[in-house]
Predict the 3D structure of the following.
Amino acid sequence: QVQLVQSGSELKKPGASVNVSCKASGYTFTTYTINWVRQAPGQGLEWMGWINTNTGNPRYAQGFTGRFVFSLDTSVNTAYLQISSLKAEDTAVYYCARVTNWVFDYWGQGTLVTVSS
Amino acid sequence: EIVLTQSPATLSLSPGERATLSCRASKSVNTYLAWYQQKRGQAPRLLIYDASNRATGIPARFSGSGSGTDFTLTISSLEPEDFAVYYCQQRSNWQFTFGPGTKVEIK
């Protein structure tokens, strides 16, 4: 069965960096894009962008350029989200999701990133 | 960018009642509209895609309708497990946006 398993919660200080991983199984990894979605505490879902798992090309949504980097390691079917120069407002749950055509059909369990001094 | 608006923000209903949730797009999205359910502490789950198609394993009490700019998610008879937040989502020019959500709570 299709599964996306994300890395565990992180507590970081402002200015630090964080890496979130998303390991896929149960399907051919390079067939579907991996998208990232942010959910701030008590808020809705915000699409961050995607990475083409076949070419490695990322596409970032408005507001997620510069400090946010999507990457892959296709040898272990894993996508990564790196956020640098963390700010308090980056505190959120970050989800990876597989997108089939344009629909988010499978989601990771989410990774809570807390930024606090 | 296409903006999605959902109404109402909160819907207070009792089990067994019918729930009608609305999603409106700022421009036509044809039928590129999906609905997701999110329970507290869980990842979202796909319910409906292409405006009216139920995803695999979704009960028949969930139905979607609409096209262009106006869409509806209907839950015909609320079960206890249906009390959650519901989001609509659209695709336009391979940019995705989500609506702000409708919380369906127990009255």
In short: Residues 108 and 114 of chain A are 18 Å apart (CA to CA). The two ends of chain A are 40 Å apart (CA to CA). Chain A touches chain B at residues 35, 37, 44-47, 59, 61-62, 95, 102-105, 107-110 (CB under 8 Å). The mean pLDDT of chain A is 97.
